Amino acid sequence: MAIDAHQHPLFFRDFCADAQIASLRREQQAYYKMGVQDVRRVIEQNRINGVEKSILLPHDFSHFQNDRISNDAMRQLVDRSEGAFYGFAAVDPNRDDAPAELERAFGELGLSGLKLHLAKQKIAPSHMRVLALMEICQRYNKPVVFHAGISWQPDATAQYARPVFYEPIAVEFPKLRFSLAHMGFPWVTETAALLAKYPNMYADLAALYFDSTDEFFHYLFDRAMDYTWLDRGIRHQVLFGTNSPRWGAKRALAAIRRLPLREETVECITGRNALEFLGEEEVNWLD
């Protein structure tokens, strides 16, 4: 069984009961034909497809679009999920109360990490408002997932999302575990180089921009780089992720297992790395 390190709950019925909100999210987040999802069915589908647990990545675009999934609602959903979900917090750095809300999300609500989409929130990784949130995450030993690379979402520009722009965070917060989503596509070799340099950096595979999962993984690890980069170099820092509901787990997991990788590497990618990223297991591969 695997851990999906990148699942979005934006169309879960618990968070999307209002038709107006559903319509806004379809347009503003480029899910143009997505329907509202029943949470129990999502959990059942995940398990049928080989996913035991998922990291839920909510959003807070309250500053520009007045749309967010509240951290209280995320906590309530995780409590009802019977262990199926790890719930991350979402805090728009543009909010004046962002540090206080993140402190509450960790200290009072006990959420598992922080999700930021700076391209949508229109703020640079080096901005003091973002760095203040990183300090809180490092202090609480909570990981961060950043959207990285190109985004299909309207009004989300790559000037805030190119992988190399996140290098200063790795330097300033060496004990902070953070992941660049989507392997930073199309700058995947840039992402891989950063992972090789900084052991506190991770990246996830939620980057299926071609029709075939096999073809896309072949592009990532055989054309853009070499399989040896993954199998011998960065295997402890790559996380399985689907970007669900945009894509599902069944084909992606099967495609990973068809790659010419050692079995231990596949085990790291599909589960063990996520537990280390979350802080549930010790990171001992550097010992």
From TrEMBL:
It comes from the Bacteria. The keyword Lyase applies. The keyword Lyase applies. One of its GO terms (molecular function) is carboxy-lyase activity. Residues 3-279 form the Amidohydrolase-related domain. Keywords: Lyase. This is Amidohydrolase.
